[in-house]
Amino acid sequence: MTNSINWFEIPVIDFARAKKFYETLYGAEIMEMPFPDGKYGMLPCDMEKGVGGGIAQYEGFEPSTKGALIYLNGGEDLSTPLSKVESAGGKIILPKTSIGQNGFMAHILDTEGNKVALHSMK
User: Fold this and answer.
1) What is the mean pLDDT of the segment spanning 79-106?
2) pLDDT range class, residue 43, cuts 50, 70, 90
3) Distances in Å between the alpha carbon of 93 and those of 4, 6, 101, 104, 107?
4) Residue 2 within any structural domain of the chain
5) Total count of domains within the chain
6) How far is it, in rounded angstroms, from Cα 83 to Cα 53?
7) pTM surpassing 0.90?
8) Which CATH number covers residue 81?
9) Element (H, E) at 25
């Protein structure tokens, strides 16, 4: 086993709003995928080299600030995606914080009310 996680889904209420938020955060298009009884958008990922995931809207799947915390890739420098969070409609709840030799992290709320984290080495 290479990774403990192989896929994740972030629940959204307003798919278009969430798609715009994550597109702004990543500076990349969120690819919409067929999904039974809902909507699905894949976040940028390299399926051959790592873990992937997406945003999903379907009945009974609700955003939350509680439960498991997903760390999203913050790119080369965490300051870049963090600078886009609030202008895209999200909120920074834990600013860029050093975690020593493991780089930096921050916690944010997306437009849907999900608490997610960002990580980078710089």
Assistant:
1) 98
2) very high
3) 26, 27, 22, 14, 6
4) no
5) 1
6) 22
7) yes
8) 3.10.180.10
9) helix 15-26
